[in-house]
Specification:
- 37% of the residues lie in helices and 20% in strands.
- It is α/β, with parallel strands linked by helices.
- The strands form 4 sheets. The protein has a 6-stranded mixed β-sheet with strand order 1-5-4-2-3-6, with helices on both faces. Strands 8-7-9-10-11 form a 5-stranded mixed β-sheet, with helices on both faces. The protein has a 4-stranded mixed β-sheet with strand order 13-12-14-15, sandwiched between helices.
- Helix 1 crosses helix 2, helix 8 crosses helix 11 and helix 13 packs antiparallel against helix 14.
- The radius of gyration is 22 Å and the shape is globular.
């Protein structure tokens, strides 16, 4: 069955354009609610959101949809995506919903769904909900319509959970931390958690107005964070995205640290404490330097296609407890059922405190292999099926064999061909990428 609504991470789009309309959100509430009406207990859904202006509209529409089919609704207000996943299980809910478009600008929005176990829905569950979207909903009898209530202590519950992942023996006293919350979902909870653990906190991106989420701030725009860390003499800088499931770190020199370095640090620390289970799960985009560093320590690395849901699926299938993406989605299954930027940051801060060394030393676990990614836009057709493109790719693979890696894929969201190569010879990497991009451009 073709999926018309769900993408790689829920439903997402431009607000007030399909599928991000109030009408569709209401139908999603009815379809998802009906799908999870199982058993004779009183059914419950937990709904959180980020700080987008359209969140009010989408929240109200979802509430109408869920209550109309007999589900009670618990409203959390602005909360990180991992908080919604955690509270779904904590409150014994049948379903969790996060209204967010993650790192996208304010005009976009999205709907992410979590099952009663706190994990994102399977492809099968999403297909079943899509099917229900084409059917007339079965509405509840008047006396069985759901109720909605807002809970006031959701923030405190999540802060407590996050702090519980930080070693009891440690504190952040004497550490100056800059935290950029992207004017998003974590604008309250992230600075609070760090302050309660003893850090001197310099908050950025904590004044959401509905329109400024991810606007030149957060994990995708870390320039102001880098400047502030250096200017304030901070020990480290942290940048979350709009729904706080992603983290990017800046060391005391203002240098960026990506998810690959964080995974290496956390995995090696877990190995030392005999707490590492299985291999580290990363995506095809993770740097070859990470794979080599883990291999030196006797730690395996498994690659998946791009997307944190695929990382998590592989982690669950193999029993691994560390996985993530170069972009900063870090999944630590001992603590969370989805990526959690704040939890990942606390594991890094714990290693920093214990080492007594500057962040620039602790966070540089390996030297990245030169890597280059370029995008080529195309207008319809299938340029990767072109014989000239295939021939050029074959040549590149022979040139890189034993010395690097080539990855070419079609974007799942835009008409783009993504060409990435990495290897020890940066000039070879550049030439290979440019040659393939030229061939794709000619074919397109």
């Amino acid at each position: 069955m073709t999926r018309n609504f769900f993408g790689t991470d829920g439903i997402r789009g431009l607000t007030n354009h399909e599928p991000m309309t109030a009408q569709t959100a209401l139908r999603v509430g009815q379809a998802a609610g009906t799908h999870f009406l199982r058993g004779d207990h009183r059914h419950r859904v937990v709904i959180g959101k980020d700080t987008r202006l359209s969140g009010y509209m989408m929240e109200s529409a979802l509430v109408a949809g869920f209550t109309s089919v007999g589900m009670d609704v618990v409203l959390l207000g602005p909360m990180p995506t991992p908080a919604v996943a955690m509270l779904t299980t904590s409150m014994r809910a049948d379903l969790g919903v996060m209204i967010s478009a993650s790192h996208n600008p304010f005009a976009d929005n999205g709907i992410k769904l979590f099952g009663p176990d706190g994990y994102k829905l399977s492809d099968a569950a999403e297909r079943a909900i899509e099917k229900r979207l084409t059917e007339e909903p079965k509405l509840a009898k008047p006396e069985l319509i759901g109720r909605a209530r807002r809970i006031d202590d959701a923030r405190g519950r999540y802060v407590h959970h996050v702090k519980s992942t930080f070693p009891q023996r440690l504190r952040l006293d004497g550490l100056k931390v800059v935290i950029d919350c992207a004017n998003g979902a974590a604008y309250h909870v992230a600075p609070e958690a760090l302050w309660e653990l003893g850090a001197e906190v310099i908050p950025l991106g904590v004044g959401p107005d509905g329109l400024n989420i991810n606007d030149n701030c957060g994990s995708t725009h870390p320039a102001h964070l880098r400047e502030t860390v250096v200017a304030s003499g901070a020990d480290i800088g942290l940048a979350l995205d709009g729904d706080a499931d992603r983290i990017v770190i800046v060391d005391e020199k203002g240098e960026l640290v990506d998810g690959d370095q964080m995974m290496a640090l956390i995995a090696l620390d877990r190995q030392k404490r005999e707490q590492l289970r299985g291999s580290v799960v990363a995506t095809v985009m993770s740097n070859l330097g990470l794979e080599r560093r883990l291999g030196e320590a006797g730690i395996g690395m498994i690659r998946t296609q791009v997307g944190d849901r695929y990382v998590l699926e592989e982690m669950r299938a193999r029993g691994c407890n560390i996985g993530g993406e170069q972009s900063g989605h870090i999944i630590l299954s001992d603590y969370s059922t989805t990526g959690d930027g704040l939890v990942a940051a606390l594991q890094v801060l714990a290693a920093l405190v214990e080492s007594g060394k500057p962040a620039s030393q602790v966070l540089r676990q390996f030297e990245p292999v030169p890597q280059l990614l370029k995008n080529v836009r195309f207008n319809g057709g299938a340029p990767l099926e072109d014989e000239a493109v295939k021939a050029r790719i074959a040549v590149a693979e022979r040139e890189l064999e034993g010395r690097g890696r080539l990855l070419i894929r079609k974007s799942g969201t835009e008409p783009l061909i993504r060409v990435m190569a990495e290897g020890d010879d940066p000039e070879l990497v550049r030439r290979v990428v440019d040659d393939i991009c030229e061939a794709v451009h000619t074919a397109a």
